[in-house]
Amino acid sequence: MAMAPPRTELRPSEMAELNERFDGAAAGDIIRWAVDTFHPHLALTASMTDAVLIDLAVKVEPAIEVVFIDTGYHFPETLDTVETVRRRYGLNLRMMTVPPHDDEIWRVDPENCCSAIKVGQLDRALADKEAWMSGLRRAEAPTRAQAPILSLDLRGLVKVNPIATWTDLDVQGYIADHDVPVNPLVHQGYLSIGCQPCTRPVADGEHPRAGRWADSSKQECGLHL
Question: What span, in angstroms and rounded, lies between the C-alpha atoms of 106 and 108?
């Protein structure tokens, strides 16, 4: 079992000061701080909707560990995007693969499927880490509107959201300017891509995550709580 590293402690006052400073900082500068502070005990999680955060991060630290959770329920296009992104950037990619289940969990226990699969695999991936980064953005959904750039997660790890302040136009502009790989499902209206059984295209006027768990009251998978 991987041994957890000594923790780099951030006092609440330091966290507040950094959040205030980073709210107007460039994403690359936030990533540079995270790398300088935590690498190699730092990971980046990717859903493979696009590779914007990966593109930003590997420019700062090419060897950063990128974690992708293969739930067994992904769209084929998403798995193809993983391979495209891996080749494009020569990623230090860690695939967290979920063993097959006798019953499809999303059918028999949809409320707990994400916690059993995604959260459990993320716990494993972060067992030897001090911090992790995600591409969470405030503009994605009302549940994320107040998301901080820095926080402590339930494990006590530092969670960094370098592009939390980016708008949809910021993302689209960066993709166009830097020729960033994008999951082809995005062009079919899937603006936030999760597992195939729980994701649908987004209608005009809906927020990007409206297509996730559309037939239930669920809004988050638990990775970002």
Answer: 6
CA distance 181 to 86: 10
Q: Edge-to-edge strand order for the sheet containing 42-45?
A: 92-97, 65-70, 42-45, 131-133, 158-160, 150-152
Q: What is the pLDDT of residues 19-56, one digit of tens each?
A: 999 999 999 999 999 999 999 999 999 999 999 999 99
Q: Kindly report the pTM of this predicted structure.
A: 0.86
Gap between the Cα atoms of 125 and 115, Å rounded: 14
Distances (CA, A) of 95 to 26, 68, 144, 223: 29, 5, 26, 16
How far apart, in whole angstroms, are the C-alpha atoms of residue 40 and residue 128? 10
pLDDT at 221: 47
How crowded is residue 120: how many other Cβ atoms within 10 Å of its Cβ? 15
Reduced to 3 DSSP states, what percent helix, strand and coil does the chain have, rounded to the nearest 5? 40, 15, 45
Amino acid at 217: S
Q: Are 195 and 223 in contact, with CB atoms under 8 Å apart?
A: no
> pLDDT tens across 76-127, in order?
999 999 999 999 999 999 999 877 665 666 555 656 666 667 788 899 999 9
Q: Is 200 exposed, middle or buried (0-12, 13-18, 19+ CB in 10 A)?
A: middle
Return d(Cα 165, Cα 185) in angstroms, integer: 24
Residue 31 CA from chain centroid, whole number: 14
Distance from C-alpha of 149 to C-alpha of 90, rounded to nearest angstrom: 27
Catalytically active residues, by annotation: 221
